Amino acid sequence: MKEIAETKNIGLRGVKVADTRISDVDGERGILIYRGLNICDLVVHSTYEEVSFLLLNDRLPTAEELKGFQSALISEREVPEAVYRFMEMMPSTAHPMDILQAAVPVLASDDPRLHDESREANLKKAIRLIAKLPNIVAAWDRIRNRRKAVRPDPELTHAGNFLYMLSGSLPDPETARDFDICLILHAEHSFNASTFAAREVASTHAHLYAAVAAAVGALSGELHGGANSEVMKMLVEIGETHRVKTWVSERLQKGAKVMGMGHAVYHTEDPRATILRGICMRLADRVGDRKWFELTKAVEAATQEEFKKLKGKQIYPNVDFYSASVYYMMGIPADLFTPVFAVSRISGWAAHVIEEKFAEAQPKPELYRPDADYVGSYCGPQACPYIPIKERSK
Ligand SMILES: CC(C)(COP(=O)(O)OP(=O)(O)OC[C@H]1O[C@@H](n2cnc3c(N)ncnc32)[C@H](O)[C@@H]1OP(=O)(O)O)[C@@H](O)C(=O)NCCC(=O)NCCS
Predict the structure, then answer these.
(1) Can 267 be counted among the known catalytic residues?
(2) What is the mean pLDDT of the chain?
(3) What is the pLDDT of residue 103?
(4) Cystine design at 215: which of 198, 208, 250, 301 (Cβ 3.0–4.6 Å)?
(5) Cβ-count burial of 252 within 10 angstroms (0-12 exposed, 13-18 middle, 19+ buried)?
(6) CB contact at 8 A, 73 and 183
(7) CA Rg, the chain, in Å?
């Protein structure tokens, strides 16, 4: 071991645990790159399918390769009947993230090459997961509402097909493209909590599905992917722009957080938030109702003003802040926002698991095994005497 980190209880902030070739987050300048390419260029020129190829293969595809990759994704969109049967047995109150997390191992049991740990088989597993996760999320929303799941449409793009499977009607092309951009923006973000969870599981030689199920669990928390649903709850609770200032200052003064604001790495505006703000505005104009855009903007301004007063520093919106109203205006239910994050992040998770398994950025794969200082009961090096149950008191 080259160096021992002395710091503890800091959530591993600033502790470098690995090298990666997949993405870089420049928290000072507010720049995010996937495999060397700026996301601001990717959202202009690419699609989610192309970005997924890029993340998995470390380069952009040729036209022919992209066609092949898109066809592979389309051919893997159907999910096994067992997934529908499992969802039909679940109570309609089950959280969509729990359903998603539980459905991933069902996909594993249906994979004929589950135990093939070649790179090629892992790429195939990645394609299956990228293709099938949207189907699971959309189907669960329909099944819990006692509607029949909509089968995927091979004519539609990855983004358009998800919106179609969710609502049962064809999305307009502008909305499908905006959703495609949202998927690009959420696809990858270096060593965030869920990606680290996936890599940690992969480092034990567990299969890709096991790593992804762990990542879904990690993403569900409100400090990570769960924040976008919380932002929507907040916007609905505030309801009117004139209530924003009081709501925000009461919240910050009692030491509570405004969801969707702040970031562990960005000390300037998250570049994804900048792009999402633009999508939010044009979507509001397209649906002919600026309420959610104006409300979100007002919460951003009020939080920045109050935060500056209280802490003397700036705070900026993160990726979850504007994505909440964007998804809402696209007709996506609020508790599906985090599963939609997973539908996108799956390509980043898979790329990281493959990088971890095949040591593509460092000399050799290594099991993650951090250390901790024991601060519990101590009676000397031989440990404490065991007290039989009859002799114990509290
Ligand atoms: C994302 C997050 C966990 C990053 O945290 P971090 O970089 O470790 O920053 P800290 O939690 O140490 O915050 C630094 C200070 O800013 C405050 N702060 C950070 N985000 C805040 C927010 N959204 N609302 C109010 N205060 C916030 C913290 O309370 C802390 O105050 P203190 O110094 O008085 O203790 C944090 O900003 C947060 O909880 N945001 C809301 C949840 C969210 O949107 N998550 C999605 C992230 S993509």
Answers:
(1) no
(2) 96
(3) 98
(4) 198
(5) buried
(6) no
(7) 22
Name the catalytic one among 158, 186, 207, 224.
224
Residue 310's alpha-carbon distances to 169, 185, 298, in angstroms, are 47, 31, 18
pTM over 0.90: yes
Q: Which of 154, 135, 151 is nearest to 87 (CA)?
A: 135
Task: Name the closest-CA residue to atom 20, ligand 1.
Answer: 262
Question: Are residues 186 and 319 in contact, defined by beta-carbon separation less than 8 angstroms?
Answer: yes
Tell me the per-residue pLDDT of 318-357, one tens digit each, with 9 for 90 and over.
999 999 999 999 999 999 999 999 999 999 999 999 999 9
Rounded Cα distance between 68 and 52, Å, is 13
pLDDT at 5: 60
263 counts as catalytic:
yes
> Which band of pLDDT confidence, cut at 50, 70 and 90, is reported for residue 10?
confident
**Catalytic: 207?**
no
Q: Is 261 helix (H, G, I), strand (E, B) or coil?
A: strand
Lookup: tokens for 36: 């060397």
Cβ of residue 225 lying under 6 Å from some atom of ligand 1 = no
263 CB less than 6 Å from ligand 1? yes
Tokens of 43: 């959202």
Beta strands 31-34 and 23-26 are antiparallel
Which amino acid is residue 108, in one-letter code? A
**What does the block give as tokens for 110?**
């249906």
- 90-144 confidence digits (pLDDT tens): 999 999 999 999 999 999 999 999 999 999 999 999 999 999 999 999 999 999 9
Task: Identify whether the C-beta of residue 332 lies closer than 8 Å to the C-beta of residue 166.
Answer: yes
Residue nearest (by alpha carbon) to ligand 1 atom 13: 262
Structure tokens at 70: 């898109």
